[in-house]
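Wed. Picked up where I left off yesterday with Cell division inhibitor. The coffee machine is broken again, so keeping this brief.
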Amino acid sequence: MKVLISGGSGFLGSAFSRELMARYRAQNKDVTITWLTRDSSQPHPDDINMMTYDELAKSDMSFDVILNLAGAGIADSRWSDERKEQLMASRIKPTQSILDFIARASTKPKLLVSGSAIGWYGTQGDKPLTENSDYETDFAHTLCNEWEQLALKATNHDVPVAIVRTGVVIHPEGGMVAKLLLPFKFGVGGQLGDGQQVMSWISREDWVSAVIFIIEQQLKLTKESDVNHIESLAQDNAPINDSTIKTANSTANNTNAVVYNLTAPNPVTNHTFTKALGSWLHRPTFFTLPEFLLKLMFGEMSTLLIDGQKVLPQALLDAGYSFKHSTLQQALGNQK
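Structure written out below (tokens, as returned):
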């Protein structure tokens, strides 16, 4: 399998690359991973190929799967107008480059997996949200929605798309936990606001395993559809040749798009998360950052800290995915 990843060197992309490589090699399956980057000289593992966006624009290579994760961290700094433009551009430009490649590729990818976030649902408190739920409009929704809608244009070229809406990813190497480690280790960690806002989280190990699960499920469905279509043509006494197979692939993949929430099945309140993190680090959690102070410090971005979302992974569960870490205690206890 040949995989192209934008954002491959990041917190999620690098972990995905390591795990996919390890799994496929253990099964004696061929796998080639290429990271899409603006700087091909950046440090990378020896078994990872590198390709710049300029090279992609001229490339005639083919890939079985494209994983689109590029995007600046939404919680890295205050949402000034300039920062909002950066957040949008950091997602839209790489995605457009991938779409341009797909449009002119003679051999289309079998699947595009494109990143998003549970921010798509907007602020909805403790209302349970699944992939079929509606949204509330705010900046996080607008950012995610424009990213998703652009990625979905790959279906215009008969390439199936899986949108993965990611929650708070739990691992000390990055994300929220990495940002909280220092204050918690010094004993000044504490809950945010009243602590009752719901946090929808997922361990990084489950995130990686879920994306591999989605890829394998979608490729299996595509393969089965191809075989069924070819058998149908054969029963009609149609000749089976290279042209027929291409037609079958095109028909099977037509405008196929799915959405998955990448969250664990048991969301927690910020209070529960704070106590669990303090217990894991063996540190007290007496402090509280009041809501007014969070708004003063972070402005509009404070909504990510103050307003909860109870997002459930219904599509993953329905598809048969089994979580390794279904509780926060399991996720923290198994960190390496």
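Quick read: The two ends are 28 Å apart (CA to CA).
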